[in-house]
Amino acid sequence: MTTTLKHAAATIAPPLILFTALLAAWQAFVTLGDIPAFILPGPTAIADQFTQFREPITGAALTTGRNALIGLIIGAILGILTAIISATLWIADRIAEPIVTALAVVPIVALAPVLYSMFGASSEQARIIVAALAVYVPVYLNTLTGLRQVLPVHRDLMRALAAKPLDVIRYVTIPTATPHVFTGLRMASALAVISAIVAEYFGGPRSGVGSFITTAAAGSNYAQAWAYVLGGIVVGLVFYTTTLALETYALRKAGHR
């Protein structure tokens, strides 16, 4: 076994063993304790419903994932651009500070019903906007922190070497800020999925994971509701692991360890 495979096995094995043990304990608790399904269905019942309804779950997960992805892209672009402007112009920083603070404390998902009334109950735009707003704050704050980590002595050294402004950005600013940007994106990837799912609880088309969870729970199909929750978890894991992989690749390209 190569060193890479050993490292991969050592990384994957502990959480996999823990996850298996938790599932076994969960099933034993539900079975031996005779727990009603409306309180907590067992993993086997959830797995059965997940298999039985795999096609609608997949369709709902794809819809939620698409809304979350669009919201993630929009929120990330706006967050990075405004952070660059705030780091460059002090007046923009002063203007943006109270706005970002307000967005950080406002329950964004509560905006979903208002957005549905604006864009129509059959539109997915409200869910995309909610996801974008949830993404914007962590991306903006982490990017701004990264841009402010550039030491003045490094900028002075580049000027002393007669470096062009684009060279300063390429060789100093971007490498310094990159880890912080991806930290914000990694946090935001999970928030985008969570926000998109929660926004589906408040109305709109019956298409996403959140919509089917409420429908299944309302019909007392609790194992089915948990199966859709599992679909949402899969979407969140895909977003997180993809962002983590992009972060690892980008940091290696930038020379970070």
Helical content class: over 70%
Report the radius of gyration as a whole number of Å.
22 Å
The CATH first-level class comes to Mainly Alpha
State the shape: globular
| β-sheet strand percentage | under 5%
Mean pLDDT: 84
| Span between termini | 24 Å
CATH topology: MetI-like fold
**What is the total number of structural domains?**
1
Q: Count the beta strands.
A: 0
Overview of this structure, please?
With 257 residues, this protein is mostly helical. The protein has one domain (65-253): Orthogonal Bundle (MetI-like fold), CATH 1.10.3720. Helices cover 81% and strands 0% of the residues. It contains ten helices and no strands. The mean pLDDT is 84.
List keywords for this structure.
257 residues; mainly alpha; MetI-like fold; 10 helices; 81% helix; 0% strand
Outline of this structure?
The chain is mainly alpha-helical. It has helices at residues 3-32, 43-52, 54-88, 90-105, 112-119, 125-147, 152-160, 165-199, 209-218, 222-253. The protein has a single domain (65-253), classed as MetI-like (MetI-like fold).
